[in-house]
Amino acid sequence: MATMLHIFPYLIIISLFLQCAGAQARLSAKLFEPSVLLSKSSTPSLVNVTLYEEALCPDCAEFITGPLTQMFQNGLSAITTLTIIPYGNAKLIGGSIRCQHGPDECTLDRIEACVIDFYPDTHSWFSFISCVEQQPAASRLELWPQCGVALGLDVIGIQNCADGEKGAELEARNRKLTESLDPPHRFVPWVTVDGAPLYEDLDSFFERICEAYKGTEKPETCARLDGAAGTYPSSRNLQLWGHVE
């Protein structure tokens, strides 16, 4: 588990980060500022989009930095309520949670859960998660504080949360939410639209949102869907449920 000592070196070199490695974090922050998000005040019934994921899953990262990010850019975020559950294929074994990609993934899952809990505005926590998931998997545990600082988040408070009782509570809650899925999830990323799973058909993500929305005025994206929007590579290797390293 990461400790407070793990964070301090990054706080010291943050000025260098903001000049070079922080470019992605600054971009994420700009993309999801409130002024960029479309108003939801006039939407009659938002579509509930839920992603069940894990922090070191390559296909989860691809979905977050691809279709989910595009959702904020093409106007579909205005008709959706997005929820992300960081737990994925983890399992409770012998009283301890074991994550598919090892202990670092468990730590990052708790960090993401703490950020979602601390910063309930979608643009805040999604900017952070998007930034983290853009980083190389082997470096995410080291680089997440840089994303947090670049976005103005309380990285020390987030780390304390992840290492403490609050992080454990959020982890347990996300385990229950994941294990209570009906039908059960079979792999990650596992995406539901208004509770209905997309299964392997992640290519239809945008189309399913447009179909589920019952408002009279839909975003322009819905009118011009041509089968290419929201494309998710068919060569993906979905992280199967039940496999824990």
TrEMBL record:
Its main location: secreted. It is found in: Secreted. One of its GO terms (cellular component) is extracellular region. InterPro entries: Interferon-induced_GILT (IPR004911). Keywords: Glycoprotein, Secreted, Signal. Residues 1-23 form the signal peptide. One of its GO terms (molecular function) is oxidoreductase activity, acting on a sulfur group of donors, disulfide as acceptor. Belongs to the GILT family. This is Interferon.
